[in-house]
Amino acid sequence: MSNLSLEIEKGIALLTINRPKALNALNSETLGELNACLAEIEKREDVRVVILTGSGEKSFVAGADISEMVNATPLEGSAMGLLAKEAFSRLEEMPQVTIAAVNGYALGGGCEIAMACDIRIAAENAKFAQPECGLGILPGFGGTQRLARLVGKGRAKELIFTCDMIDAQEAYRIGLANKVVPQAELMDYCKAMAGRILNNAPLGISLAKQAINTGYDTDLNSGLKLEANLFGLSFSTADKKEGMTAFLEKRKEKHFIGK
Ligand code: CAA
Questions:
Q1: Measured from the CB, is residue 65 less than 6 Å from ligand 1?
Q2: So which residues are the catalytic ones?
Q3: Which residue, by CA, sits nearest to atom 4 of ligand 1?
């Protein structure tokens, strides 16, 4: 992995996109590495939360790599979009919780990869935009779909058609960022949130994630039926017994085993 770094500690994987000379722009090689790395992480039961960030102080991910796209053919453009789709859908659907620690520019593909994460925490210097229409293209790594779902169709259209860059506070106001924190505190904040997630039952969380993701893209009634079934499935776990027994015994410490 020449464009990524991965550290795993106490249930948390810190995955860093590491192309600082190009402000962590995503070329095909990086997308391929990301997809392979996520495929490994999703199988690991010892990883419960993934924090995704970009190297350096200035940029999370400045988009897809324009120097690669400039001479790409339509077929190559589609191949890049499909590779990103595979990697970002994997990120969106993996059983672990994913947190984007947005430490600067999240532009184009950078905003799109952040939106494929479950939660987005923005440093005060974060900037979000979908600048593709200014480059003669359209968002191609999920922006037209995920941005509309996150902030509503009207705001998504405004951001995509104007290419306006918004700051962290505005991203928070419209629901694109979950929280804004001082830049120096970004990683500690994300790790503390990961710690609170780690206190809860792994299967309960991944089933809830599945119910939210699948239910969001279907009608309410189908979503509610899916939820009821997954709710029932969670009753088969040792963690359900442990969580409820701990409550009844008035015991604070719980020993979840992810089974
Ligand atoms: N692709 C390739 N290289 C990029 C890049 C990108 N998306 N973003 C930045 N870089 C490179 C620059 O070319 C520059 O390289 P050199 O030093 O070799 O010239 C280096 O990173 C530093 O960038 P700047 O000198 O431009 O830094 P700055 O501080 O003046 O500006 C910036 C920072 C505002 C982020 C500016 O770099 C910028 O506008 N970048 C492009 C952002 C963009 O348009 N992203 C969308 C790409 S299209 C897309 O993502 C399609 C999609 O849907 C997937």
A1: yes
A2: 112, 132
A3: 22
pLDDT tens, residue by residue, 146-185: 999 999 999 999 999 999 999 999 999 999 999 999 999 9
CA–CA gap between residue 190 and residue 69 (Å, rounded): 33
* Phi, psi values for residue 107, rounded to 5°: -115, 145
Beta-bridge mates of residue 123: 181
Ligand 1 pocket mutation pick from 3, 19, 21, 23 by most atoms within 8 angstroms of CB? 23
Please identify, by atom number, the ligand 1 atom nearest to the C-alpha of residue 23: 21
Q: Is the dihedral of CA 180, 183, 184, 188 positive or negative?
A: positive
pLDDT for 1: 80
Q: Whose CA is nearest to atom 43 of ligand 1?
A: 63
Please, what are the domains in the chain? 4-198 (3.90.226.10), 202-248 (1.10.12.10)
- Distance of CA 180 from the midpoint of ligand 1 (Å): 23
Distance CA 21, CA 36 (A): 23
pLDDT on residue 139: 98
Distance of alpha carbon 134 from alpha carbon 129, whole angstroms: 11
Any ligand 1 atom below 6 A from CB of 54:
no
